[in-house]
Structures are given as structure tokens and as C-alpha cells.
């Protein structure tokens, strides 16, 4: 039997998303539960894959199946595809497994040509409508299938309006549209040297191919990259009988969310336009009316829409984003999907739905995307600050953002790369602006509603967004915008508040957000189910406190080098490094000791009762020294100076010589980590002494301390053994001296392959392992991170030589194998060995899943990632 490529809506259901795409599966499901969905069929994503595998040709058998499906549509409607008297018209719509609003292409009114348009006019008794549909079709087909820029068509419509001295599209008559259609066809021929096809069979074939191709257009690719959607999935094609929202004032089209996608509030949130076709709302070219107005204008329709919305939400037990069209007083549902929402809305909706009994706590945990959570921690506007509000638009996506005005997406991308903060200001944004939205701090548009694609996409990315701010008059040519008598230029600062819709002049200082009760509730549920502990990387009391506030259960990595880089300490640190005798070095270390002690005291205090993992000095010493080139320049300057100071010159020359001596060919693999402690044990000894002195002081003050002392970059057990002896020796000395017994442990980082491979031996000397996956990734690949990211890694990822940047998402097959081996070998020697991870991967969702799977005890990440890690760890436990 031939393969099935085509599924009628009545043959599918919501479970068939990977085959039918989200849109197709949900159209089928809605058909099944008896909602008013115009009939149609779906060409599967498998056909898309086949199309790409067979050199951009469609499977033979596919068209026979399409024809059979058409026969069924014709039988149900009594209309015939391509026939003049009773023309059947369809939409051809993209739709992949993951919804990608506006990123791929859709064509409406397909089946029209010079003959059928006449039939449509007769059938509906509405000539103007028929020709309006026809020109829309040629426009979409010309653009999507034949590749003629949108702009050319818009230009021709503008010209026609000018000719007739009218302002609105709706003022153009049948005759006008006929003339426009003629010009459209000429335009298509001019740019493509091909005629607009009159044969509906040819139209449908080409449209299907175009939709498949749109899977790989640039904006879809960018969207997939941002949202980590795999490239191989492909899209389905939905062919559906047209219904018309543009048949007059008893018709219309709209979009609604069953709950507010910005705040999560339980209220119907939507917009509509009377006498319009679907694209008009979502494309953001006209600013639509809020849905509540529909209640006044068409009360019956409003009521039945509310009913359907509720039914759909209950059916999917999730917030839905629903597209509808009203044709001459009859309501049709054209799409439903889980609505995209901000983090705030996701959390509120999940918590409310648990309360309403729609879902349980575990569902709620799986409903919130961990990577979205950092939106909750973004700074916000100070409510008490004095604000110079200059305009107000629709609050489309919450959050506050300040930046310089830019008017073009490319410009936004360029300036952001140069290090500027920008706000993208546009009359409307289209999906083609996605790279600009991504780069900008926030988006402001003068047209378009809250359900426009721009708003949906911004919310999905957690960008502040204000739409439909009609007070703003934008002049793209002059690169300026006017609000009343105020004119702002490109580069001027504004601030937008996406929660209120306020546009504010200038830059406004932002403050720390407060965590909502619901946010805390959700994380408390996460804590109930997760197995992994979550710690934070912090090396000062402020970060430690923040981490604790956000739920950290200890410090997984306290880097001591940052403490050395403080301005006032640098000269002492330099003195220590450049010392030529042990005495000289010890003198410097003596000065550093009380400072280090203070550092640790503050951290222990903040982490009262929780473990604090302190790593002894790790980076190559020359990182603390002046730059040799700068020094050489200074020396040269001194030498040229008539009144030069000999002493000063001598000093600088000595310094340069010493710094040069310390320079390494390959610092990443050079004299760093425990190699420092082995060559200069007095440095580590000072740090250890400081730790124990601070711990003792805390303990006498009633603070509970649990220090874990970590030796970095161990590759051979003997390195650890020697350093551990040093720790014990100093610890004993301080404990005797202070009379305080400290419950401490000593362990190591596993961050070079040899450590993972010989983990069994190393475990003999370690109480814990902390996988330093940043260095472990560097040493496993043999990449230096900075060189890789600066030079070739980008190309590697782009060309799919590597599936992902391994410094962001843990390379499970390679680096992950070493982690697995390290845990296994380590525990085989010491069953209760504590294991954790402290690389940046500790704050990344998929890496956390891996950490759960391999049975690590904890992950450690930066303080602001702690909530993400708590939720990810819970999801990992639930996804078993
Ligand atoms: P997207 O995925 O970009 O939202 P859609 O396939 O949903 O694209 O199509 C965009 C709009 O076109 C829809 O919002 C809908 O209003 C309109 N549309 C699609 N199919 C039909 C149809 N059969 N009849 C009327 N309008 C349609
Ligand atoms: Mg849609
Ligand atoms: Mg390291």
C-alpha cells in the first residue's frame, strides 16, 4: 500500500502533533469535539522530510492523495476547486510541531483566477469583496511562492489610493481593485519573468512546495535557534476551506487568549477587526479592537466564543491562543494552541490551575520553562521614581527596558554588537524583524495589537514590548519620531515599561524585583520533588546572601582569586608574586591574611548552617600583574624624558623583567591550580589559615560553619595528597591556637581528563569531587575557551560540526562520559563520596537533566540561576 501523506481533519487528533504539526493536530482535535472548524486536510511533516531528502521534489503519490482529499471537501461543501460557478477556495497554512508564530508562510484565497473571481462575485453578490480577495491572493502568492517583495505590492496599492485621492484600503472600489490586480500581475512578471498561474492545480502544487520551503527561511531558522527547536523536524501543510471575515460589517476576524499571556490573570484577552481577513490582526498592520467590544457589537457571537474558549481550555487543560473568523454572523474557529506566555504568566497560570483543580502540582512544574525564569529576576522600574511619561501604548510584554532609539532591525543588531543598549521602534514589526527584537532591550510599535506576531514573539523571548502606541508618529526616512511637539531622534534615550504601556523620556534607574508568592510556591513544589541539591557559585557576602534568598543550599564554588583583584589589594598581591625571597613573600602574605579572613568571615556568616566550598588560588599568577606591553611603553617614555627619574626607571625595568619571567606559552595549561600550591605552599597556607581563623571566629559567635576546602586542577593523586596534608597541618595549628574544632572536609575539582580516569585513586584522598566542567570541557576538547569562542566555535556550531556550544550545554558523549566515569570510579573507592558540578553547566537546563541522570549530589550555579536550577532539577526528577 502506498504511504499515507494526507490526513483529513476528521482522521487526526491532538496526539498526532509530530506527524500533523501542532496546527493540524489541533484542527483535527477541534473537529473531533464538534467545534465549528472549516473542513480541510493536513499534509504530514513526513512529506516535508521526504521533500528535503529528494532534492526538493514532492513524493509522486502525494498529489493523488491531495486530489482525493479535495473530492471529499467538494462533496461536503458542494463547491468545486477551480470551477467557475461554485469555486472552492482554500488556505494553505504552515504548521510545525512547535508553534513558530508568523515565522513560516500562509496563503489565503487559493483557487482564485480571472474566471473563478467572477464566480465568487456572483455567488456572494459582492463584487468588491471578490476582487479584494483576489488581489490579496495574488499578493500573498506573488510574495510567498514567486518571491516578489511585499513592498512592491504595497507600493502599487498606495499609488492607486493616491490616484483616487483616498486614504484607506476600504475606500477603493471594485474597479480600483481590478486595476490593482492588473498591475500586480505585471509586477510579478517583471520581477520573475513568469506569469501568475491561472490554473488552481498549479497554484496548489506551488503553494505546498513554498510552505515546505518556508521551513528553512531565515527568520524561521533564527527563531529555531533562539528556542532550541531542532532543524530536522519539518513543517506540515494544512489545506482548509476558506471562510471570509471580509464580507462586510457582519464579518470579522480575531485572536484571543483564554488568560492574559502577560500577567496570567484569568480573563479573556483578545482583539478583533470587523470586515477583515485573519492576517490583518496578526500581522500588526492595523491596530485592532479589544475583544470586550465584540460583546457590544455581536453579543451572540461573543457569548458562543466565550463558551468555546472555555471548552478548549478545559479540554487541553492549558491556556489557549485561539484564532477565529466570523463570516456573515457565523463563528468559525481556525486555530488553537497552548498560548505563549511570559514567565510571570506561566507561573500564575500554573498555580491558579492547580487551585482550580485543572492540573496537579507535577503538571504545574512541567508547565513552566526553566530558562524563562530569569525574566522574573529582571530589574524593574522603581514605583516611587519620578517618571517623565511621554506616551502610552498597549502593555504587550512586561518588564522595563532603557536604551537608545533605533528604527531598523539591522541597526538594532549592529549597535547591540557594538555594546549599545537599544530600543527598537517601528511603525509595526513583522516576523522579519526577529533578529532586531532579539538584539534590542525592548520593542515599541505605533501600530498593531497585543496579539500581533511581534507581541507574541517578544513575550516568548521575555522582552519588554509596547504595541499600538498611536501617539507616536514615526518617520523612518528622517529617523525620528514625534509625540506631539516633542521630536526624538535615533540615538536618544527612552525607557519603556511593558507592564503599563508607558513610554518614558530618558534613562530610568531600575531596582531589584520582589519575588511573587506564586513564584515561591512553585519553587517550593520543585523542592519537594527534586533529588539534586542546588548550590551557588559566590565569592562575596552580597552574592552569598542573594543566593540564599533564591534558595541556594550552600556554596558550591567560592573562587578566592576575585578577592585578590580588589583595587586596594593589587599592590600587595603583586608584592607577593614578585617576591624574590621567601621572607619577602611571607611579609606580603601576612598583610593579605587579615583581608582574606574578613572575606571568609562574611561568607560564612551569610551561609550560616550551610556548606561553603572554597577553592584555593587557581589562575596563573601573571593575571594579577601589569601588562608587559604597557610597561614597555612606560619605560620607553621615561627613557625619552629629559628629567627622567633613574630610580623609577630601574623599578619599572625590574618589574618588566619579572613579569616577563612569569609569562607562559600556554597559561591555560601552565603554572596554575594546585601547581601553585605545590611550588609556593606558603600561599595556600595563608588561605587555609584565613579560612580556619574566620571559621573559628564564626563558631565562637554561634554561627554554624561547614567549610569544604577544594584543591583545583588535580591530575595525579599525589598532588592532592600533598595539598591535603598541608590543609590538615594548618587546620590543626589554627584549631589548637583557637580552641575551636571545625568540621571541615577536603576534596578536589575534577577538571582534567586524567583526574576523571584515575578517580578511583584520587578518591582515596578526597572527601568530595566537584566537576569543573568549564576546564574539563577545555581539556577534553583541547580547546582554549576564549580562543575557541573568538575564532572557530561559532562556525563549528553553524555548520553543525558540533551540535552545540559545549561551553553552554554540556557535551554529554565526551565530557559527560568523563563525568560518569569519575563518579563511578570515585564511588567505587569511597561509596559516600560527595559529588557536584560547578561549571557554568550547573545553571543550564539540559545539563542539569544530565547531572540528575548520572546521580550527582548537587549542582552549583550563579546566584540568579538558582531558581532555574531548582525547577530544572524538579523537571528532571519528574521526567524519569
Ligand atoms: P500563522 O501560523 O502564521 O498564524 P496561519 O496559518 O494561522 O498562520 O494563518 C494566518 C491567518 O490566516 C490566521 O490567523 C487566519 O485568521 C487566517 N486563515 C487561515 N486559514 C484560513 C481559512 N481557512 N479561512 C479564513 N482565514 C484563514
Ligand atoms: Mg495562526
Ligand atoms: Mg578550573
UniProtKB/TrEMBL annotation:
<feature type="active site" description="Tele-phosphohistidine intermediate">
    <location>
        <position position="453"/>
    </location>
</feature>
<feature type="active site" description="Proton donor">
    <location>
        <position position="838"/>
    </location>
</feature>
<feature type="binding site">
    <location>
        <position position="775"/>
    </location>
    <ligand>
        <name>substrate</name>
    </ligand>
</feature>
<dbReference type="InterPro" id="IPR002192">
    <property type="entry name" value="PPDK_AMP/ATP-bd"/>
</dbReference>
<feature type="binding site">
    <location>
        <position position="559"/>
    </location>
    <ligand>
        <name>substrate</name>
    </ligand>
</feature>
<dbReference type="InterPro" id="IPR040442">
    <property type="entry name" value="Pyrv_kinase-like_dom_sf"/>
</dbReference>
<feature type="domain" description="Pyruvate phosphate dikinase AMP/ATP-binding">
    <location>
        <begin position="18"/>
        <end position="55"/>
    </location>
</feature>
<feature type="binding site">
    <location>
        <position position="773"/>
    </location>
    <ligand>
        <name>substrate</name>
    </ligand>
</feature>
<keyword id="KW-0670">Pyruvate</keyword>
<feature type="binding site">
    <location>
        <position position="775"/>
    </location>
    <ligand>
        <name>Mg(2+)</name>
    </ligand>
</feature>
<feature type="binding site">
    <location>
        <position position="774"/>
    </location>
    <ligand>
        <name>substrate</name>
    </ligand>
</feature>
<feature type="binding site">
    <location>
        <position position="751"/>
    </location>
    <ligand>
        <name>substrate</name>
    </ligand>
</feature>
<dbReference type="GO" id="GO:0050242">
    <property type="term" value="F:pyruvate, phosphate dikinase activity"/>
</dbReference>
<dbReference type="Pfam" id="PF01326">
    <property type="entry name" value="PPDK_N"/>
</dbReference>
<dbReference type="InterPro" id="IPR015813">
    <property type="entry name" value="Pyrv/PenolPyrv_kinase-like_dom"/>
</dbReference>
<dbReference type="GO" id="GO:0005524">
    <property type="term" value="F:ATP binding"/>
</dbReference>
<feature type="binding site">
    <location>
        <position position="751"/>
    </location>
    <ligand>
        <name>Mg(2+)</name>
    </ligand>
</feature>
<dbReference type="InterPro" id="IPR018274">
    <property type="entry name" value="PEP_util_AS"/>
</dbReference>
<feature type="binding site">
    <location>
        <position position="772"/>
    </location>
    <ligand>
        <name>substrate</name>
    </ligand>
</feature>
<keyword id="KW-0067">ATP-binding</keyword>
<feature type="domain" description="Pyruvate phosphate dikinase AMP/ATP-binding">
    <location>
        <begin position="56"/>
        <end position="298"/>
    </location>
</feature>
<keyword id="KW-0808">Transferase</keyword>
<dbReference type="GO" id="GO:0046872">
    <property type="term" value="F:metal ion binding"/>
</dbReference>
<keyword id="KW-0418">Kinase</keyword>
<protein>
    <recommendedName>
        <fullName>Pyruvate, phosphate dikinase</fullName>
        <ecNumber>2.7.9.1</ecNumber>
    </recommendedName>
</protein>
<feature type="binding site">
    <location>
        <position position="615"/>
    </location>
    <ligand>
        <name>substrate</name>
    </ligand>
</feature>
<dbReference type="GO" id="GO:0016301">
    <property type="term" value="F:kinase activity"/>
</dbReference>
<dbReference type="InterPro" id="IPR023151">
    <property type="entry name" value="PEP_util_CS"/>
</dbReference>
<dbReference type="InterPro" id="IPR013815">
    <property type="entry name" value="ATP_grasp_subdomain_1"/>
</dbReference>
<dbReference type="Pfam" id="PF00391">
    <property type="entry name" value="PEP-utilizers"/>
</dbReference>
<keyword id="KW-0547">Nucleotide-binding</keyword>
<keyword id="KW-0460">Magnesium</keyword>
<keyword id="KW-0479">Metal-binding</keyword>
<feature type="domain" description="PEP-utilising enzyme mobile">
    <location>
        <begin position="421"/>
        <end position="501"/>
    </location>
</feature>
<dbReference type="InterPro" id="IPR010121">
    <property type="entry name" value="Pyruvate_phosphate_dikinase"/>
</dbReference>
<feature type="domain" description="PEP-utilising enzyme C-terminal">
    <location>
        <begin position="516"/>
        <end position="876"/>
    </location>
</feature>
<comment type="similarity">
    <text>Belongs to the PEP-utilizing enzyme family.</text>
</comment>
<dbReference type="InterPro" id="IPR000121">
    <property type="entry name" value="PEP_util_C"/>
</dbReference>
<dbReference type="InterPro" id="IPR036637">
    <property type="entry name" value="Phosphohistidine_dom_sf"/>
</dbReference>
<feature type="domain" description="Pyruvate phosphate dikinase AMP/ATP-binding">
    <location>
        <begin position="304"/>
        <end position="354"/>
    </location>
</feature>
<dbReference type="Pfam" id="PF02896">
    <property type="entry name" value="PEP-utilizers_C"/>
</dbReference>
<dbReference type="InterPro" id="IPR008279">
    <property type="entry name" value="PEP-util_enz_mobile_dom"/>
</dbReference>
Amino acid at each position: 500500500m502506498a504511504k499515507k501523506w494526507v490526513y483529513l481533519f476528521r482522521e487526526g487528533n491532538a496526539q498526532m502533533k509530530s506527524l500533523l504539526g501542532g496546527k493540524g493536530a489541533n484542527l483535527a482535535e477541534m473537529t473531533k469535539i464538534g467545534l465549528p472548524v472549516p473542513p480541510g486536510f493536513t499534509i504530514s511533516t513526513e512529506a516535508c522530510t521526504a521533500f528535503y531528502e529528494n532534492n526538493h521534489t514532492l513524493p509522486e503519490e502525494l498529489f493523488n492523495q491531495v486530489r482525493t482529499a479535495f473530492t471529499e471537501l467538494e462533496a461536503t461543501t458542494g463547491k468545486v476547486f477551480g470551477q467557475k460557478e461554485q469555486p472552492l477556495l482554500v488556505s494553505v497554512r504552515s504548521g510545525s510541531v512547535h508553534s513558530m508564530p508568523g515565522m513560516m508562510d500562509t496563503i489565503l484565497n487559493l483557487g482564485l483566477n480571472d474566471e473563478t473571481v467572477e464566480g465568487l462575485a456572483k455567488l456572494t453578490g459582492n463584487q468588491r469583496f471578490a476582487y479584494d480577495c483576489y488581489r490579496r491572493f495574488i499578493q500573498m502568492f506573488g510574495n510567498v511562492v514567486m518571491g516578489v517583495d511585499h513592498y512592491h505590492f504595497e507600493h502599487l496599492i498606495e499609488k492607486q489610493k493616491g490616484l483616487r485621492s483616498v486614504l484607506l484600503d476600504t475606500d477603493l472600489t471594485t474597479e480600483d481593485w481590478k486595476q490593482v490586480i492588473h498591475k500586480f500581475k505585471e509586477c510579478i512578471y517583471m520581477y520573475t519573468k513568469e506569469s501568475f498561474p491561472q490554473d488552481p492545480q498549479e497554484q496548489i502544487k506551488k503553494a505546498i512546495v513554498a510552505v515546505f520551503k518556508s521551513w528553512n527561511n531565515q527568520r524561521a531558522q533564527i527563531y529555531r535557534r533562539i528556542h532550541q527547536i531542532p532543524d530536522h523536524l519539518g513543517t506540515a501543510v494544512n489545506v482548509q476551506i476558506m471562510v471570509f471575515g471580509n464580507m462586510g460589517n457582519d464579518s470579522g476576524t480575531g485572536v484571543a487568549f483564554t488568560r492574559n499571556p502577560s500577567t496570567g490573570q484569568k480573563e479573556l484577552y483578545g482583539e478583533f477587526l470587523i470586515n477583515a481577513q485573519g492576517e490583518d490582526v496578526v500581522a500588526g498592520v492595523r491596530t485592532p479592537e479589544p475583544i470586550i467590544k465584540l460583546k457590544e457589537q455581536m453579543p451572540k457571537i461573543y457569548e458562543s466564543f466565550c463558551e468555546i474558549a472555555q471548552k478548549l481550555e478545559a479540554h487541553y487543560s492549558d491556556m489557549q491562543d485561539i484564532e477565529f473568523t466570523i463570516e456573515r454572523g457565523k463563528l468559525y474557529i481556525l486555530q488553537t494552541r497552548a498560548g505563549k506566555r511570559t514567565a510571570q504568566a506561566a507561573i500564575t497560570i500554573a498555580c491558579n490551575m492547580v487551585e482550580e483543580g485543572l492540573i496537579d502540582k507535577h503538571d504545574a512544574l512541567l508547565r513552566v520553562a526553566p530558562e524563562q525564569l530569569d525574566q522574573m529576576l529582571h530589574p524593574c522600574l522603581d514605583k516611587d521614581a519620578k517618571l517623565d511619561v511621554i506616551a502610552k501604548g498597549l502593555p504587550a510584554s512586561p518588564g522595563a527596558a532603557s536604551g537608545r532609539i533605533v528604527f531598523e532591525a539591522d541597526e538594532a543588531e549592529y549597535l547591540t554588537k557594538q555594546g549599545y543598549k537599544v530600543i527598537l521602534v517601528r511603525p509595526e514589526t513583522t516576523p522579519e524583524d526577529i533578529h532586531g527584537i532579539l538584539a534590542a532591550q525592548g520593542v515599541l510599535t505605533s501600530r498593531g495589537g497585543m496579539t500581533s506576531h511581534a507581541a507574541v514573539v517578544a513575550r516568548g523571548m521575555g522582552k519588554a514590548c509596547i504595541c499600538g502606541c498611536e501617539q507616536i508618529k514615526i518617520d523612518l526616512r528622517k529617523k525620528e519620531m514625534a509625540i506631539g511637539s516633542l521630536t526624538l531622534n535615533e540615538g536618544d534615550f527612552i525607557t519603556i515599561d511593558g507592564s503599563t504601556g508607558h513610554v518614558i523620556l530618558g534613562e530610568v534607574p531600575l531596582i531589584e524585583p520582589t519575588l511573587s508568592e506564586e513564584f515561591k510556591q512553585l519553587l517550593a513544589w520543585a523542592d519537594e520533588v527534586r533529588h539534586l541539591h542546588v548550590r551557588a557559585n559566590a565569592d562575596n557576602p552580597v552574592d552569598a546572601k542573594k543566593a540564599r534568598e533564591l534558595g541556594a543550599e550552600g556554596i558550591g564554588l567560592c573562587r578566592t582569586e576575585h578577592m585578590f583583584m580588589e583595587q586596594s589589594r593589587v599592590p600587595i598581591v603583586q608584592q607577593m608574586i614578585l617576591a624574590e625571597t621567601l621572607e619577602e613573600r611571607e611579609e606580603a602574605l601576612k598583610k593579605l591574611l587579615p583581608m582574606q579572613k574578613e572575606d571568609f568571615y562574611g561568607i560564612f556568616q551569610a551561609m550560616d548552617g550551610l556548606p561553603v566550598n572554597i577553592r584555593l588560588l587557581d589562575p596563573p599568577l601573571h593575571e594579577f600583574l601589569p601588562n608587559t606591553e604597557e610597561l614597555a611603553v612606560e619605560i620607553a617614555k621615561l627613557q625619552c624624558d629629559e628629567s627622567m627619574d633613574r630610580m623609577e626607571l630601574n623599578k619599572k625595568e625590574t618589574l618588566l623583567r619579572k613579569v616577563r619571567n612569569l609569562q607562559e606559552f600556554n597559561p591555560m595549561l601552565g603554572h596554575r591550580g594546585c601547581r601553585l600550591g605545590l611550588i609556593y605552599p606558603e600561599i595556600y597556607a595563608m588561605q587555609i589559615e584565613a579560612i580556619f581563623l574566620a571559621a573559628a571566629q564564626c563558631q565562637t559567635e554561634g554561627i554554624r560553619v561547614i567549610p569544604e576546602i577544594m584543591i583545583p586542577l588535580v591530575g595525579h593523586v599525589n598532588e592532592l595528597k600533598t595539598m591535603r596534608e598541608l590543609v590538615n597541618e594548618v587546620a590543626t595549628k589554627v584549631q589548637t591556637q583557637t580552641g575551636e574544632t571545625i568540621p571541615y572536609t577536603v576534596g578536589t575539582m575534577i577538571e582534567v581528563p586524567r583526574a576523571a580516569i584515575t578517580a578511583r585513586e584520587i578518591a582515596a584522598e578526597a572527601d568530595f569531587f566537584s566537576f569543573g566542567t568549564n576546564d574539563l570541557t577545555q581539556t577534553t576538547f583541547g580547546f582554549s575557551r576564549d580562543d575557541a569562542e573568538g575564532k572557530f566555535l561559532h562556525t563549528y556550531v553553524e555548520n553543525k560540526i558540533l551540535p552545540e556550544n559545549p561551553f553552554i550545554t554540556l557535551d554529554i558523549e565526551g565530557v559527560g562520559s568523563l563525568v560518569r566515569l569519575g563518579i563511578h570510579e570515585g564511588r567505587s573507592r569511597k561509596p559516600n563520596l560527595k559529588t557536584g558540578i560547578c561549571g557554568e553547566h550547573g545553571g543550564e537546563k539540559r545539563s542539569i537533566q544530565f547531572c540528575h541522570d548520572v546521580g550527582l549530589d548537587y549542582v552549583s550555579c550563579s546566584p540568579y540561576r538558582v531558581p532555574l536550577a531548582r525547577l530544572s532539577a524538579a523537571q528532571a526528577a519528574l521526567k524519569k
